[in-house]
Design goal:
Blueprint lengths: L15 E6 L6 H9 L3 E5 L6 E9 L2 E7 L11 H12 L4 E7 L3 H14 L2 E7 L1 H6 L2 E3 L1 H8 L2 E4 L8 H8 L3 E2 L8 H11 L9 H9 L6 H7 L2 H15 L6 H20 E3 L6 H11 L4 H48 L3 H8 L4 H30 L1 H8 L1 H5 L8 H7 L3 H6 L7 H14 L3 H11 L4 H25 L19 H35 L2 H16 L6 H10 L1 H13 L5 H13 L4 H11 L1 H29 L4
Parallel strand pairs: 1-4, 1-5, 5-6, 6-8
Antiparallel strand pairs: 2-3, 3-4, 6-9, 7-10
């Protein structure tokens, strides 16, 4: 995910380009990071919502732009990500294309290698994750692979920063593969006829002909821009005549013949022996996905998260920052400076009043939220770097099947714990429209973002552990219930679950540090301005007597139905602007002793399920359309209040916290 990267205005568009291409989850982004560092540009590919990342690398004193393309399984596009990668290769002429391969899953990668060699692009093959392949008893003969494709083959272990120098050297001396794979006589005949009608392009005419024969409809706009209508009709007629000779779709025939060629190459270059099953990595690898022991391990992870974020982050660190640094030093200094140098009571209150920029916005953003978010970012980066997240997806696959989804949907849901807005963008990895809508709904409904979950854990850190358990049970039950209903109401199908599981690794301190610092930087840039904006809205609403009016208007709902104090109204108002701001308001109410344990549970369940923040709503509109976004928001708002009210009455009746 590249939302945390920093822009570098020095990246020059006229420099030669090196494209990183590969299947999803092969370590492309890690290779990209080692080549370029963190100073990169992130932008949407024109006309799409797909992000493309660019950075600069210096090799032999010359500058090159490195482009990290979206992960693909084929260059005959089946998704927007695959279309973007194919279009980049079609639109630009790179100095080199580096295909990053997961060495332990080479058969899947070679299907893509065949297509790249057909394109006649200058190619380097990078066998990444060689250590993981070796631990599974997989050995790849690099010389044999190089001889077959007649291109440079290098190996890397990105997480250990190994092999980057040979990769850089190979990247400035790429070769166009002379390897040629022949299809059956019919496909070859019609490919040649189509080639004769095609214009020159940045990729070979043969590869374009094979895309057309495969029925690639995404190529139509390029054909319309480069060929007259009469020639396009002739191309389509040739394709139809070729397809008539087969009982199965021609795209399937071409894929099957490529897979047969891949099998032959794999037999030549791959040797498999008994995998290593010893060591702590193998033990934890089996434990984390075990049908019985995987669940207790997950509960142990949640408990460790609660202790580190909820107790240490929200307890020790927040107390230090809020009560000592801000309470004893920064806020009193600010009050003295403002009263001494700023004239007028209104301006003074704007800075240091109950809804002041310093006393509320900066205190909330830095003293309360930052330490909680920072500890969560550290914990999340450790889970990410250890390889635990994909294993969690595999373990929860059966549960997700009840919601018309598969384990792959766990990944956007987990990323939602970082940021729901960015997680909504990653729903593009899901294969069907139905799956994407369901996960978008569940993200907006019940997945708290990192800053919000940090505050929530912080509040529960000062409550009995039963309060956290009730929150988790209610939230899980709601997500399963809504997902179950959505799977039966929303039309469409779900797809099968295929996900490569990486081994459990010891997290690299440098990786965790870089990810954490990048995310903190992103939080400060995005959150602090919104906290200030939110405080200005509250300040204005208070001065115009709108806030008291809203409190009175919402009293029947907030006070009578949810059983919360009227001051909680502003937390829900601000929760729409930014979820963690709303939670921070509840945190402040708890600190003042205005919320008892039952009210803490009810308020946190309600605000977690509450309407998505404004940034997430805009992304839902962009990704799913205005109608779907309004339907999602229109369902979530009353539903969250209904669940909160029902829980309030249930807890009072059961007398759990009395």
């Amino acid at each position: 995910m590249h939302e945390h990267c920093r822009k570098n205005d020095d990246v020059k568009s006229d420099a030669s380009k090196i494209f990183l291409v590969g299947n999803p989850n092969v370590g492309k982004s890690a290779i990209f990071g080692l080549l370029t560092g963190r100073y990169v540009t992130v932008s949407n590919y024109p006309g799409t919502t797909v992000e493309v990342t660019k950075g600069e690398v210096s090799i032999h004193r010359s500058k090159h732009i490195v482009v990290d393309t979206p992960g693909v399984n084929s260059l005959v596009p089946m998704s927007e990500d695959e279309k973007v990668t194919r279009d980049i290769l079609l639109a630009e002429k790179p100095e080199a294309v580096v295909q990053v391969i997961d060495a332990k899953n080479i058969k899947r990668a070679l299907f893509l290698t065949l297509q790249l060699t057909e394109m006649k692009v200058p190619l380097i093959v990078d066998l990444n994750m060689k250590d993981e392949a070796a631990s599974r008893g997989i050995e790849i003969d690099e010389s044999a692979l190089s001889n077959i494709f007649r291109v440079a083959v290098v190996s890397t272990v990105a997480v250990q920063k190994k092999g980057i120098s040979p990769l850089k050297k190979a990247a400035v001396h790429p070769m166009i593969s002379s390897f040629r794979f022949s299809y059956d006589a019919n496909i070859e005949e019609y490919a040649a006829k189509i080639e004769a009608l095609l214009p020159e392009a940045n990729i070979s005419k043969r590869s374009l002909a094979l895309m057309i024969l495969s029925g690639d409809k995404t190529l139509k706009s390029w054909l319309l821009a480069n060929l007259p209508g009469e020639k396009i009709k002739r191309l389509e007629a040739l394709r139809d005549r070729a397809e008539e000779k087969y009982s199965t779709p021609l795209s399937l025939v071409i894929s099957q013949q490529r897979l047969k060629a891949v099998d032959g190459i794999t037999d030549e270059v791959l040797t498999k022996t008994a995998p290593e099953k010893t060591g702590w990595s193998g033990f934890f690898g089996e434990l984390t996905t075990h049908p019985t022991w995987g669940v207790p391990f997950l509960l142990l992870v949640i408990y460790a998260l609660y202790e580190f974020v909820g107790v240490f982050g929200a307890g020790t660190l927040v107390d230090l920052l809020e009560e000592v640094i801000f309470g004893k030093y920064l806020n009193p200094w600010a009050e003295k400076i403002v009263t001494a140098f700023i004239p007028g009571q209104l301006l003074q209150e704007l800075l240091i009043g109950p809804y002041g920029i310093v006393t509320m916005a900066l205190t909330y953003a830095i003293a309360i939220i930052l330490p909680i978010t920072a500890t969560f970012f550290i914990a999340f980066s450790i889970m990410e770097d250890s390889g635990y997240l994909p294993r969690l997806a595999a373990m929860l696959n059966k549960i997700f099947q009840t919601m018309g989804l598969n384990g792959k949907a766990v990944l956007p849901m987990i990323l939602g714990l970082g940021c729901d807005t960015m997680a909504t963008l990653t729903t593009r990895i899901l294969d069907t429209k139905k799956e994407r809508i369901i996960v978008t709904l569940l993200l907006a409904l019940g997945v708290p973002c990192s800053a919000q979950i940090g505050v929530i854990l912080g509040m529960f850190g000062k409550q009995p552990v039963e309060a956290l358990i009730v929150w988790l049970v209610v939230l899980t039950g709601v997500i399963l219930f809504v997902g179950f209903l959505a799977a039966r109401i929303i039309p469409g199908r779900r797809t099968d679950f295929i996900l490569e599981l990486p081994p459990i690794r010891m997290p690299q301190f440098s990786n965790v540090l870089i990810k954490t610092l990048s995310r903190i930087e992103w939080y400060l840039k995005e959150a602090v301005p919104l906290f200030i904006l939110g405080t200005l809205i509250l300040f204005t609403a208070d001065k115009l007597k709108i806030l008291p009016f809203l409190r009175d208007a919402a009293s029947p709902l907030i006070v009578n139905f949810l059983g919360l104090p009227p001051q909680a109204t502003e937390s829900f108002i601000m929760g729409f602007l930014r979820r963690d701001y709303g939670a921070a308001g509840l945190f402040a109410l708890q600190e003042k002793g205005l919320l008892n344990t039952e009210q803490v549970v009810v308020s946190l369940v309600t605000i977690t399920l509450f309407i998505p923040c404004i940034a997430n709503l805009f992304v839902i509109i962009k990704e799913r359309g205005l109608k779907t976004a309004l339907m999602i928001a229109g369902f979530i708002f009353p539903f969250s209040v209904l669940v909160g009210g029902a829980l309030h009455r249930l807890l009072l009746w059961m007398k759990i916290f009395n």
